Amino acid sequence: MTTRMFGESVARVEDDRFLRGTGRYVDDLGAGALQAAVLRSPHAHARIVDIDVSAVLDVDGVHAVFTYDDLQGPMAEPLPLLIPHPALTHGRTQYALAKDEVNHVGEAIAFVVADDRYLAEDAVDKIVVTYEFLPPVVGLAAARAAERLVHDDVPGNVAARLQQHVGDAPSAIAAAPHRLSLDLDIERSASTPMEGRGVLARWDTDSARMQVWTSTQTSTGVRAAVAAKLGLDLGQVDVITPDVGGGFGVKIVHPWPEELLVPLAARVLGEPVKFIEDRREHFISAAHERAQVQHVEVGFDDDGRLLGLDVEFWHDNGAYTPYGLIVPIITSTQLLGPYKPHNYRVTFESLYTNTVIVTPYRGAGRPQGVYAMERTMDAIAAYLGKDRAEVRAANFIQPDEFPYDHHLTFQDGRPLIYDSGDYPQLLDKITALIGWDGFEAERAEAAARGRRLGIGLACYVEGTGVGPYEGAHVHVETSGKVKVAIGLTTQGQGHQTAFAQIVADELGVPFESVEVVTGDTRRMPYAVGTFASRAAVMSGSAVQLAARKTKEKALRIAAEALEASVDDLEIVEGSVRVKGAPDSSIALGTVAVLSNPLRYAFDEASGAATQFSVGDPGKPPVADGEEPGLEAREFYSPERSTFAAGMHAVVVDIDPDTAEIEIVRYAVVHDCGNLINPMIVQGQIHGGVAQGVGGALYERMEYDEFGQLLNASFMDFLMPYVTEVPDGIEIDHLETPSPLNKLGIKGAGEAGVIPSAALFASAVEDAERLTPSGLAITAMPISPSQLFELRAQHRKDPS
Amino acid sequence: MKPAPFAYARPTDLASAVEALAGNADAKVLAGGQSLVPLLSMRLAAPAMLVDINRLPDLDHVTSDASGVRVGALARHAAVLADDEARRIQPLLALALANVAHATIRNRGTTVGSLVHADAAAEMPVVLCLLGGSVDVVGPRGRRTVAAADLFLGPLESSLAHDEIAVEAFFPALAAHTGVAFREVARRHGDYALCGVAGLVRLEGPRIAEARAGYLSVSDVPTVIDLTPALSSSESLSDEALAAAGELALAALDPQGDIHGTAAYRAQLVRALTARTLRAAYDDAGRRREQP
């Protein structure tokens, strides 16, 4: 039997080209294409009185300039509201180019196409826009105060208000022996992938076809949007996703204005057009996430067991709501983590501000929810004088309680039911891994050296693998090579490796003979996209189903050729053979030849399938119910999401004088069901932890009162360098299979980033001991300067 | 992020470079480009002309003798950092250079360029000031030597005339019985410091005869402060004396707040880093006395 590939740390086939610099990204394509640049609003809130492009029109090398007035038909309508929700009573989306009003610094106003990007930027500088300034709404306090409105027709700046509840939280809290209230803040950050947005389009006049290459997390989504907005049939549009240099959520928004304007310009000009975003543009015109203000009321017993939990939070959705309420809904449901609240009520308002839009960024609302819940757990432990791990353990859903129904509605519109898990075991593993029990001795030893050590712990549950579906197409060529196409895109996750592992196992072929193509609508036109830690669950399952169906067909054809029963056959190393009689075999490539009855022979192999060589003259060459070709297409559509879980712990060492926070060690215990490729999962955790460290200790979006983003560069937006992330991350896995798919897998893409804000708040608070009991750190991220100011504040007012 | 149009000259001798610079009032010198090129790309600077001096001969030297270290205008930070003789003659150079940005930037950025860029958040201007070094400049009126104390006029403003090119910096050697140290706190490794301190302590017997420190990122221009009065009475460094030195330094500095740190936090860094740097410089002086 061939060695099973599933579960093996197979080296990634992608890495050779990535490490050698031979990956092909959008900007590597379309040499000689015209280049676009965008005039973006320098103001957070203003009415556009006039746009004068006359100085641009005569510039040598400029081919076209577009403003709103040049847009027609569907292009002149607002961009789509991608995920409507009944509670989103005041959803608003932008225009591809601003119409009359701009609502954040960076909003697109004019689009210039020139010979190269230098000329296009020169031309942008020559456009004169006359603005009438409007007062900007910046930050959640201003949005809630609603003294100024972002959109005139949205009262109170409230896009949506949504409440869910189970039981009667207010009464349970009122009757509880102990009660606490918490007010919490969490700041904005952003995906900031290494490669920004980029799009290239070519209109083929001869065949009336639009081809678009874009750095996206959903090629089918962009395709549908381009077709709808440009008035083309879906069948006229191909969207191809080349190598993508990271997405982390921001590239799931579709379409971006540029994803429509580039194809539009290509069609108008009859020449290929390219737009490559620069870093400043990414900061001010892509998307951000995370900012929320939260209020928690909790009632609990002497053991710290939750009796009632009542959470209200205010979510900053930026200037528009193209992605609906996904982020705050995830916060409101995933906040519960591995715990049983008994009575729970959650209410949120999603509010407009004159800032960049907020759409999912890796974690997608979960970091905020986990922050609220874990701060609450720490506060309960501090209040009762109990160990933080003990209080958490008292609240866990137990292994025998799965499937566990929270009686709430999740982000996919389906019930929030946890499929499987073992939280007590995760806690045992994480406390052992970090050295929780021996920590007090370590702390005392460090204190003797004048250092402040602290330890933190945070737990989370992540709904992964949301629907509606994904598909896969598996095709065995006559050479025996296996070509696999999946519709969702890839941004560096290693899909070409992981899915080839599944196919190799299922079909019985060597791993090396499998080639996986992702995100090309010509190869797989039905797909959703890569987000919500769903690729492995969704496409992995679809790939397995398609490979299995291909195998069944191969066995039927081979059974006839070998004059054997299907049940007696197996496929090993790319050959179908009779079990126990390996000499009686037929190569899978030959089966592929036989699967496609031919009139003509083009080579020696195909001669075997021609009409005088094969087949029963008494039957049709293609049997009833069969199709030519050794291939299959299958789709996977689960009933609901599968729930991964994990726990992180960290030890920090804080300088008593400079308040610098150093990570001593970091541990992760993670349960994403069965692992397809442990090395890839480990890489996902490493990357997530690095991003989480950034979000907890370094990154924030520094908007001033005028809505100007003060740190729109990597000089001032402090994405951590390798020197800021832990040198080593201790990782342990638990594998609790999901009962929802045949592979037993759960998603792993976002986990590493989810608990960071909660975790570092816990650890820094533990090191600093700023208050005798209760909560000191209520705002994240935290910088050394902020910690220094917090120390000063608590010295002055030690309550 | 593409620069606005500019004229470009790449002369191969110094006289032509000076001539090109003198011929265009809006011309700028391009050496390592690690500060200028980002400014151009973000269109925060748009000079009419760049005079690229990278092809000028004989300017990439790092030469050391008993008097000190001479660094040519085209010597990269990395070359100065790697020069063992320079490190022996004036150890503060390498101590500070290790904090200048990242290896990739040090591979291109020039030490002399960093001096005449006159950024009060940069390491090398403070080092030049603390050591009492100088910069040689060449212009239409010939060659002159500008003392460090006369070089820095204000934020990003040096005393060089528009048509002058800095050709060499001179860092004096470490004097006998003297120790040096460098400490800085930055948000991320290699970032501009929130506060940085270069310290120098000279001993006479067991007594501190001289203690001075140079500060970056907490004033408009690189600032050197004589801290001897706070320390000269003590034979070994007490915490109280070091704290007094910090307060003495703060009285002459003006830390400002920004998005990375409040003014109060930077003041705290002045206190903490003054103490740490002086102690390290003092220990260094002691070690050197024992191992001449």
Features:
heterodimer, A: 799 residues, alpha+beta, Aldehyde Oxidoreductase, domain 3, Aldehyde Oxidoreductase, domain 4, 3 domains, 29 strands, globular, B: 292 residues, Uridine Diphospho-n-acetylenolpyruvylglucosamine Reductase, domain 2, Uridine Diphospho-n-acetylenolpyruvylglucosamine Reductase, domain 3, Enolase-like, domain 1, five-stranded antiparallel beta sheet, 12 helices, 36% helix
Protein described:
The complex is a heterodimer of chains A (799) and B (292). Chain A is α+β, with helices and mostly antiparallel strands and 799 residues long. Helix content of chain A is 28%, strand content 25%. Chain A has 3 domains: 32-134 and 191-285, Aldehyde Oxidoreductase, domain 3; 368-463 and 640-796, 2-Layer Sandwich (Aldehyde Oxidoreductase, domain 4), CATH 3.30.365; 468-636, Aldehyde oxidase/xanthine dehydrogenase, molybdopterin binding domain (Aldehyde Oxidoreductase, domain 4), CATH 3.30.365.10. Chain A has 20 helices and 29 strands. Chain A has a 7-stranded mixed β-sheet with strand order 3-5-1-12-9-10-11, sandwiched between helices. In chain A, strands 7-15-14-13-8-29 form a 6-stranded mixed β-sheet, with helices on both faces. In chain A, strands 18-26-27-28 form a 4-stranded mixed β-sheet, sandwiched between helices. Chain B folds into 3 domains: 7-52, Uridine Diphospho-n-acetylenolpyruvylglucosamine Reductase, domain 2 (2-Layer Sandwich), CATH 3.30.43.10; 62-172, Uridine Diphospho-n-acetylenolpyruvylglucosamine Reductase, domain 3; 178-286, Enolase-like, domain 1, CATH 3.30.390. The termini of chain B are far apart. The mean pLDDT of chain B is 96. The A-B interface holds A 117-118, 121-122, 125, 278-280, 657-660, 698, 702, 710-711, 713, 715-716, 718, 720-721, 723-724, 783-785, 788-789, 792 and B 1-5, 38, 42-43, 102, 185, 187-192, 194, 259-262, 264-265, 268-269, 271-273.
